[in-house]
Amino acid sequence: MGSLISCVDAFTDRPFKGNQAAVCVLDKPRSQTWMQNLAAEMNLAETAFVITRGKRIQLRWFTPTVEMPLCGHATLASAHVLWSERRRSTRESIRFETLSGTLTATRRGKLIELDFPAERAEPVEPPAGLARALGVAPVWFGRNRLDYIVEVATESEVRELQPDLTALAALDTRGVIVTARSSAKPYDFISRFFAPGVGIPEDPVTGSAHCCLAPYWGTKLKKEVMLGYQASPRGGKVRVELAGSRVLLSGSAVTIYRGTLTV
Hints:
By secondary structure, the protein is an alpha+beta fold.
């Protein structure tokens, strides 16, 4: 019959915005090499592989070059596909088994809510050359298990960034989050995310980065529910809610195309 392949725009309710993810619902087990080759073929920020074994659902994420430990937009896209294709009932939450533990997706009206681990950052000394590579002066600098996070003074600095991607690719992390407080409602903060070292020069909308941004801005703004905007060329919005050691990420998704793999 063949594996189902879909392209989904996540964290947006409009086509051609948000972050693209390929979602492959496998019809039989595949090797890691095969999955990595397909992710390179799709050439999107992430390709998600859904492997069902009875009621259990395993989820893996690959960039064009490496497997990732956590990905928000491709998880949202995977849940959207399973519900859209009637593989799972919209009345029930979906529990994905992943490299970051069990992640849950639940329908909340028109939104999909993801239950993810909080990825809090701790202040550290910035590596040599990072500010020069970004072209901005950091207000605050930190790191979690995945990324560096850099706060800058103004929203315009985030929007106008033109970083040295070659220099960023040499860093010893997945990527760099650059963020500032939003200058206008409805958004509380804005951000951009660069990960050239794992094959993603700039990610359009990064759910896993908001697992860091939510506790960071929640502490600064003294808020538990916030709305973030990722100011990439495609752009996208992520609703975040702090829930102890977890972060609830909410957004919409739109299917762009679907088909069947012939390999």
